[in-house]
Amino acid sequence: MDQIIYLLRHGETVFNTQGRYQGELDSPLTDVGMDQVRQNADILKNLIGNPNDWKVVSNPLGRALQSTKIICETIGYDFKKIETDDRLSEVAVGVWAGLTMKEIENTWPNLIKDTDAFSWFFNAPNGESYDTVVSRLTDWLLSIKHEQKVIVISHGLTGRILRGVYAEMDKEQALKLEVSQDIFFKLSDKMIQKTSLEYDNFY
Fold first, then answer.
1. Angle (nearest 5°) at CA 119 between 113 and 121
2. pLDDT above 90: percentage of residues in the chain
3. Which CATH class for the 4-202 domain?
C-alpha cells in the first residue's frame, strides 16, 4: 500500500488579517480561521476511516497546535497522542517577523529590490535560506517513510516547499504552489491532490 500524507495548514490568524508575516512568531486563530479548520477536518474525517490508524504530526507553534486540536476533536483522535516536530515550522523570516510588507519596504528597500512575491522571504536578515528549509523538510519526509498514514499540520510557505520536495519540483515551481487556508492536500505516489468542498483534482 502506498503511503498517504494529508497536509493541512493552520487556519486564518489575527496576523494574517493584518498582513503581518508571522514566521516563527505566533498569533491566535480568528473565528474565520477556526471555521476553516473545522471545514477541512469534516472533509478529512470522511476520507481517513479509523482515525487511530493514522499518525498525526503538528508543528509546535501555537497556531498549528490550535488547529490540530480542532482537527483532533473533529476526527475523533486523542490530542495527547499527537507528535510535534520543529522541522515543520514556518520559514523563519528573521527580523521581518511581525511586520507588514509596507514596513519591510520602507526599512529594507534594497533587500527586496529584485525579488518577487514568491521569493522575497529568503532575503530577510537572520532568516532561513530556501536550501535550509528544503533540508529540514527532506529530513522529515525521510523520517516518516515507513509510516503508511500520516496527517500533518503545518504552515503556508513551509507547506509549499514540503509539497515541492515531495513531488521533486524546482524552487520556482514550489514557491508558486497554492497556500489557501480552506483547502488541504493528499500526497501519495509522488502526486498531489487538492481537497476541499469544491476541488478534487490532481496536478
1. 85
2. 86
3. alpha beta
For residues 51 and 39, the answer to whether their CB atoms sit within 8 Å is no
Q: Is 21 helix (H, G, I), strand (E, B) or coil?
A: coil
C-alpha 34/C-alpha 14 separation (Å) is: 11
Instruction: Spell 58-69 as b/e; 16+ CB within 10 A means b.
Output: bbebebbbbbbe
Characterize 86-116 residue by residue with b for buried, 16 or more Cβ atoms within 10 angstroms of its Cβ, and e for exposed. ebbbbbbbeebbbbeeeebeeebeeebeeee
List, by residue number, the catalytic residues: 10, 90
**126-176 pLDDT tens trace:** 999 999 999 999 999 999 999 999 999 999 999 999 999 999 999 999 999
Write out the H or E segment, with its range, that includes residue 105.
helix 101-107
Nearest Cα to Cα of residue 62 among 33, 32, 36, 38: 33
Q: Which of 180, 181, 182, 187 is nearest to 203 (CA)?
A: 187
Run of H or E including 32: helix 31-48
**Angle between helices 62-75 and 31-48 in degrees, nearest 10:** 50
